[in-house]
């Protein structure tokens, strides 16, 4: 008999018998996992999501097992034949084979013991098969005595999580760079498109659409830096700590040896913690990393909000930009198209923010020499990275790359905006500018025309100061031109006549 994770049913199939301290169980004959994994399948049918959904976590586990085999051989506690088999079996998992055998649920009790045992059993049975032996022939090669030699779940599991997250982060940062480049390309494309800036959703002063998109790119660049900085906290590992940090059952030379080999295998600048007791119980690096993920997610959500606002309408909203139409937006309103891509990015951000709270509570919930809640920490962090990477990609490919500007609408809005009068205050004074702005609002007339009619500046002078370069701050104002008439007289006249 075998337990099926998806259907939660017992099915009849060819089996082998395996035993542990609790008794015996029938294991599917073709399964590379064994009795410890089988018990976890029965006990934790909660998430219905196996650890194999996080490829880099599985690779991290295999890398730790490979490094341990090499270290155990180096210090003389594992013979060459068994060490080589474990090494080569681990490499096959690193290369992407047998991931479907990592079947325990991502959410589990036991501080990750089930995940560690799943890795031990799969790698052991791959090795047994490679040696010409049958799966389950643990008298020759044992998941615990050999594959898990010098190790404990309490140093293997957090180290594998850290390695896996570091690997996963590389792909996230690559996608973040691509998204940043897309916004930069739009900044160049829209460099000459004037628009009205807004503060508190009210009209402010002019800027270019290019400047707005350049701001999006810049903030993503800062997030890249923060993620990279916080990721270095993951490089501190506790291999050699075994159960609680005292190194019981581990050879004195194991810690240094396994660190050397794991650095070589992963290419990461790993270091052994100074205090293994503290490191075994501490999850602070996960909290810091989670916070940087949340920061990136929330800023992405803010950008998504801006894109939805700027594209709102198309007739009764801002209507400044057009997002690529991706699908029909309503089952009842013909022709309606919604900003579905920014909306999904918003929802990813909400999930990442929730995951950060989960990590925080799990970190707080640990007691004494171990945090039993690292499985939910791992799940939360890997899910956040996965969803953010996918969210960034769909935002780039299905939205940002195809954005266009409504140039005529933007030009008309700038021309009718009283905010442009701010650019004239160095030449006509604040009081006159305020009076003109009031008149423009009341009459709907063009600010430039009102300034010229009031005799404050010539048409050429006005147009020079209201050029796109000056209005957007790309060209600095160096000297003020003399006003034609004292500002206080003009203000009085404007107030009296309304023009």
Automatic annotation (TrEMBL):
InterPro entries, alphabetized: Aspartate_Ammonia-Lyase, Fumarase/histidase_N, Fumarase_C_C, Fumarate_lyase_CS, Fumarate_lyase_fam, Fumarate_lyase_N, L-Aspartase-like
GO biological process: aspartate metabolic process; tricarboxylic acid cycle
Signal peptide feature range: none
Every Fumarase C C-terminal domain range: 421-471
GO CC annotation, single: cytosol
Keyword terms: Lyase
SUPFAM superfamilies cross-referenced by the UniProt entry: L-aspartase-like
GO molecular-function terms, A-Z: aspartate ammonia-lyase activity
Highest taxon of the lineage: Bacteria
Domain (Fumarate lyase N-terminal): residue spans on this chain: 24-354
NCBIfam families, per the entry: PRK12273.1 (NF008909)
Protein's name in the database: Aspartate ammonia-lyase
Organism name: Microbacterium rhizomatis
Taxonomic placement: Bacteria, Bacillati, Actinomycetota, Actinomycetes, Micrococcales
């Amino acid at each position: 008999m075998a337990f099926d994770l998806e259907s939660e049913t017992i099915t009849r199939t060819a089996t082998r018998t395996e035993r542990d301290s609790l008794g015996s169980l029938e294991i599917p004959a073709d399964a590379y996992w064994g009795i410890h994994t089988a018990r976890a399948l029965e006990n934790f049918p909660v998430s219905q999501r196996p650890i194999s959904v996080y490829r880099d976590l599985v690779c991290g586990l295999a890398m730790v097992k490979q490094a341990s085999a090499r270290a155990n051989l180096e210090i003389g506690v594992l013979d060459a034949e068994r060490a080589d088999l474990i090494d080569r079996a681990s490499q096959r998992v690193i290369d992407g084979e047998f991931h479907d055998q990592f079947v325990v649920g991502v959410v589990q009790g036991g501080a990750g013991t089930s995940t560690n045992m799943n890795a031990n059993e799969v790698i052991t049975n791959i090795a047994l098969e490679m040696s010409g032996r049958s799966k389950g022939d643990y008298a020759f090669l044992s998941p615990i005595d050999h594959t898990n030699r010098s190790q404990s779940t309490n140093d293997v599991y957090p180290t594998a999580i850290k390695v896996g997250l570091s690997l996963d982060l590389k792909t996230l940062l690559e996608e973040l760079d691509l998204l940043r480049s897309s916004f930069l390309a739009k900044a160049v494309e829209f460099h000459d498109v004037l628009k009205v800036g807004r503060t508190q959703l009210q009209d402010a002063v002019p800027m270019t659409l290019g400047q707005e998109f350049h701001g999006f790119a810049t903030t993503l660049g800062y997030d890249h830096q923060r993620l990279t900085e916080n990721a270095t906290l993951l490089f501190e590992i506790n291999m050699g700590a075994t159960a609680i940090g005292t190194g019981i059952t581990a050879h004195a030379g194991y810690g240094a040896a396994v660190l050397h080999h794991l650095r070589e295998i992963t290419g990461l600048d790993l270091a052994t913690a100074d205090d293994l007791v503290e490191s075994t119980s501490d999850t602070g690096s996960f909290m810091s990393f989670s916070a940087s993920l949340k920061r990136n997610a929330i800023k992405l959500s803010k950008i998504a909000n801006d894109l939805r606002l700027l594209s709102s309408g198309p007739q009764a909203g801002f209507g400044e930009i057009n997002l690529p139409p991706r699908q029909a937006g309503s089952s009842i309103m013909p022709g309606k198209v919604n900003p579905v891509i920014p909306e999904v990015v918003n929802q990813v951000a909400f999930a990442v923010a929730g995951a950060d709270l989960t990590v925080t509570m799990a970190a707080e919930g640990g007691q004494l020499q171990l945090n039993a809640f690292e499985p939910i920490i791992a799940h939360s962090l890997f899910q956040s990275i996965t969803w953010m990477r996918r969210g960034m990609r769909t935002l780039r490919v299905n939205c940002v790359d195809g954005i266009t500007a409504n140039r005529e609408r933007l030009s008309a809005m700038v021309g009718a905006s009283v905010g442009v009068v701010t650019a004239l205050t160095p030449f006509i004074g604040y009081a006159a500018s305020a009076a003109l702005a009031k008149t423009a609002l009341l009459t709907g007339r063009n600010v430039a025309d009102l300034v010229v009619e009031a005799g404050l500046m010539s048409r050429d002078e006005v147009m020079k100061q209201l050029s796109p370069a000056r209005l957007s701050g790309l060209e600095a104002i160096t000297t003020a031109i003399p006003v034609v008439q004292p500002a206080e007289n003009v203000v009085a006249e404007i107030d009296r006549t309304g023009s």
